[in-house]
Amino acid sequence: MTGTVIVGASLGGLRVAEGLRKAGYTDSIWLLGAETHLPYDRPPLSKEVLTGKQSPADTEFRTARELTDNGIEVHVDTPATGVDCASRTVITKSGAFDYAHLVIATGARPRQIPGADRLAGVHTIRTREDATAISAALDAASRVVVVGAGFIGAEVAGSARQLGVDVTVVEALEHPLERAIGRQAGAACAGLHARNGTTVLCGVGVDGLEGDESVKAVTLADGRRLPADLVVVGIGVVPNVEWLDGSGLDISNGVACDQYLRAGPAGVYALGDVAQWTNPRYGESMRIEHWTTTVEQATVVAHNIVNGDSPRVCDSIPYFWSDQYGHRIQFAGRTHADELVEISCGADHADYLALYRREDRLIGALAIDGTVALMQLRGRMMSGADDWSESTDFATTSFGADDG
Does residue 315 or residue 191 have the better pLDDT? Predict the structure, then answer.
């Protein structure tokens, strides 16, 4: 039995396929996607696509001809419905695919709030169709409520404000982005909303939605009522693992993998939003929902399929970015720290740099408009040059010279 079946035709799946070919892999590659599109980039959906600066079609990574020329056989509109790891067979609605290696890259889907499915005007954003629908709704909207002040919610709010729409963001935690970067840094990021006219209501949850056929208002847990003709929900995601029920894989929080991204049965790997793997750099099991981590994991999986006798570990340092209101927020590392130290904090938290300390090591860094400094600090952590005293000295000097 030969060939690799990749379930999930998005960033991770495509990068594995291309990585295999680059490494000299000559067997068949089947890339199976549940959507009707060729692999496309998701980050622009909540920004450039919503504001009309980029068309949904422009987000495609490769043309059909480019994929075919690279020996990658893509099957769109072909969701996987099951896998038999013993016989090495993936089941889809269109038939079965036998494999020597299986790569699970099915990603995740947005969480939704109760009652949302009965009302028009309530959206999540994950696919091109989602972005197209929200973009069209923004053209006619006057009052938008965004539920969730994480990265997706903040980016949608920023896009809506660019179009001149009134926006209120509702967040159950005390600060925006608190779960991702901590309370203190989350408070700093709240300044971006305030400076751009977005109302942010923190520390309160959503009780329900009002409306007969279309949404008319959002009711909060404290009794407040927010009129709305468009609601966008960004409250996290759920890994797409249901199709793996009965496979024998551990899917309690995504697909459980070892440090090599192997999922247990021979020849099975997972990566991206759906993979929970043991990161030897931190000695932690983690599931990271970020673009850069997916790319790094795809490189590891492709290498390990081709070079099974000398596998690489996946010990990446988590890194993500978010573009909001014309500013770039970047974070590298981990937030489980003993202390957060602000190196720089300009007016209204512009030109912001904060470092996260665990014992005597630098374990994380956050920057707003400090691209060069942040990437240099990430490089130091990757190389092991993470002594706290040296890192703070370096950060103070490098941020002052940053090109912002």
Answer: 315
Residue 102 banded pLDDT, cuts 50, 70, 90: very high
Task: Report the predicted TM-score, pTM, of the whole model to 2 decimal places.
Answer: 0.94
122 strand-pairing partners: 231
pLDDT attached to residue 404: 44
Q: What would the mean pLDDT of 175-192 be, rounded to a whole number?
A: 87
**Could you tell me the domains of the chain?**
4-109+237-306 (3.50.50.60), 112-233 (3.50.50.60), 326-400 (3.30.390.30)
Which string of b and e fits 321-331 if b means at least 16 CB within 10 Å?
bbbbbebebbb
Q: Is residue 80 exposed (0-12), middle (13-18) or buried (19+ Cβ within 10 Å)?
A: buried
- pLDDT for 1 beyond 80: no
Cα three-residue angle 288-152-112, rounded to 5 degrees:
90
pLDDT at 6: 98
